[in-house]
Amino acid sequence: MPTTLADAQNLVADLISRYSSRVDYLMIRLEEAEGTDILLRGDKVETLSEGISIGGHIRACYKGGWGLSSFNQLSTIKERIEEAIAAARMVGDEETLLAPIEPVQAVCQLPLMGTDPRKISLSQKKQLCDRYTQLLKSVDPQITTTSVRYGDSAQRIIIATSEGTLIDQSWVDMEMRFAATARNGETLQTGRETTGSRKAYEDLINLDEQVKSAAQRAVAALSLPPVKGNTYTVVIDPILTGLFVHEAFGHLSEADMAYENPDLLEVMTIGRRFGPEELQIFDGAAPTGHRGSYFYDDEGTPATTTQLIQDGVLVGRLHSRETAGKLDEAPTGNARCLNYHFSPIVRMTNTWIEPGKTPVADLFTDIKEGVYARNWLGGMTNGEMFTFSAGEAWMIRNGKIAEPVRDVTLSGNVFQTLADIEAIGDDFYWDESGGCGKGGQNGLPVGCGGPSLRIRDVVVGGEV
Q1: What is the pLDDT of residue 176?
Q2: What would the pLDDT profile of 23-49 be if each residue is shown by its tens digit?
Q3: Nearest Cα residue to 389 out of 450, 454, 460
Q4: Which of 113, 174, 95, 183 lies closest to 141, judged by CA?
Q5: Is 12 within 8 Å of 28 (Cβ atoms)?
Q6: Do residues 342 and 31 lie in contact, with contact meaning Cβ atoms separated by under 8 Å?
Q7: I need a labelling partner for 19 at 20 to 30 A (CA). Which of 1, 132, 144, 426 fits?
Q8: CB neighbours (10 Å) of residue 230?
Q9: Residue 187, number of CB atoms within 10 A of its CB
Q10: Which runs of E-coded beta strand occur in 117-247?
Q11: What is the torsion angle, in degrees rounded to the nearest 10, for the CA atoms of residue 136, residue 140, residue 141 and residue 143?
Q12: How do the residues of the chain divide into helix, strand and coil, expressed in percent and rounded to 5?
């Protein structure tokens, strides 16, 4: 791997100039990554590894057709370029439409605010996981299963294109996941917590209360009554708001979903009203310090902040250069790939709903019978339909938080749910626990956030 931008330029400049005339667009991406992966299930070590990978890929476009060839030996790069060009020329039969961007030459590194995890030994990281495992188990004898996962990765990416862009960008990412399952006879309940950081290893070492809370929720849920399935007015906390805006709305804002699906493109018409005038939704990698933040995307487009919904009306969507070109819109810097094995596709970065003006306590006012849901256990989306499981929940009775309940799932149509937002809280929380999956590229770091929301007519699953 070249050690400086000048070395990278020496490596790729001749190759770019030699081959670029045979295609409309050519990009060489070099990547060096190192990381740690630890997984403990109970006291059993399932994964304990450190690894380094070096590789790259070639992307070529000719008459709208793309060729991709990846490699992990620099000595084969010429053959891989030939393969990518041959593939592009074989399938290209239209017009190459890439929204223009200014070529840039830059060296940039996302700054750490504390200790780099690469300076921490594998044994220390394992000891941290052991400590959290013991914390989970110590909460209650009814805890029967625990899992603790630690992961960190440091990536350095060099991108060179036939348009003159040459970028050397690097960052470090960290994540931990905790789960505890409690059993009482045939009843099982699970609590989960996830956290991540692009700032410092220190962000992972003082999580005792957060870790214990996962086990405590699992134990407490054993003795709770299940919620009675019905349609309720629901208040959700900022963590569930972040999950909702990412999973249910964010993916529909990714322009490759729209231009490949005429029906969805018609639904996601710019200028269409989706929610109340108070609703503001954004996505962007430009805000610093979050897990979806960077300076340039994997096509060399500068990071931006894109407003998706303004005053309840759809005003934007997320783009790669190709989707922006095909829809005649501006690129937004949302082309991302997990690593050099994949081609960049349109992905979210940091997605959030802006806080509103309603004090959180007032969100519960006048709700005769409803549900207050916090945190999350899991969820799934299918097009515009979603189902999420809450980590913990309470009934709302006569405007007050009442008895806790379990097995709360929230389901609905995202467009109807946005329209049914009755009030937006004045609080806000950034959730850095996200690992997004799309197109086989799973675990891409993202951030999401938002305020508490009050939503009417939400289908809540539970005991009928």
Answers
A1: 97
A2: 999 999 999 999 999 999 999 999 999
A3: 460
A4: 183
A5: yes
A6: no
A7: 1
A8: 14
A9: 12
A10: 143-161, 166-184, 187-197, 230-236
A11: -50
A12: 25, 45, 30
Strands 281-284 and 385-397: unpaired
70 neighbors 86 (Cβ within 8 angstroms): no
Q: Which amino acid is at 279?
A: L
Q: How many other C-beta atoms are found inside a 10 Å radius of the C-beta of residue 234?
A: 28
| DSSP character string of 354-396 | PP-SB-GGGGGTT-SEEEEEEEEEEEEEETTEEEEEEEEEEEE
Characterize the bridge pairing of strands 350-353 and 187-197: unpaired
Measured at the alpha carbon of residue 261, what is the angle toward residues 258 and 263, in degrees to the nearest 5? 100
CA dihedral defined by 245, 250, 251, 254, rounded to 10 degrees?
180
- Which is nearest to 152 in space by CA: 200, 193, 190? 200
State which amino acid sits at residue 213: S
Which pLDDT score, from 0 to 100, does residue 258 have? 83
Distance of CA 366 to the CA centre of its chain: 35
Q: Which of 145, 144, 161, 124 is nearest to 27 (CA)?
A: 161
| CA 103 vs CA 164, 301, 318, 392: distances in Å | 5, 9, 20, 49
Ranges of the chain whose pLDDT falls below 70: 1-9, 462-464
**C-alpha–C-alpha distance, residues 4 and 184, integer Å:** 59
As a whole number, the mean pLDDT across the chain is: 94
CB burial readout 356-377, b (16+ within 10 A) else e = bebebeebbeebeebbbbbbbb
Name, in order, each residue with C-beta under 8 angstroms of 108's C-beta and a sequence gap of 6 or more.
167, 168, 169, 170, 295, 296
In this prediction, residue 6 carries a pLDDT of 57
Q: Is 9 helix (H, G, I), strand (E, B) or coil?
A: helix
User: Cβ contacts of residue 271 below 8 Å, gap of 6+?
Assistant: 313, 314, 315
Q: What confidence score (pLDDT) does residue 261 get?
A: 86
In this predicted structure, what is the pLDDT of residue 433? 87
Q: Are 445 and 412 in contact (CB under 8 A)?
A: no
- 271 burial type by CB count under 10 A (0-12 exposed, 13-18 middle, 19+ buried): exposed
Q: What is the pLDDT of residue 105?
A: 94
Nearest to 188 by CA among 221, 212, 156: 221
Distances (CA, A) of 279 to 24, 193, 314: 41, 28, 10
Which of 413, 210, 436, 463 has the alpha carbon at shortest distance from 318? 436
- Sign, CA dihedral 225-229-233-237, equals positive
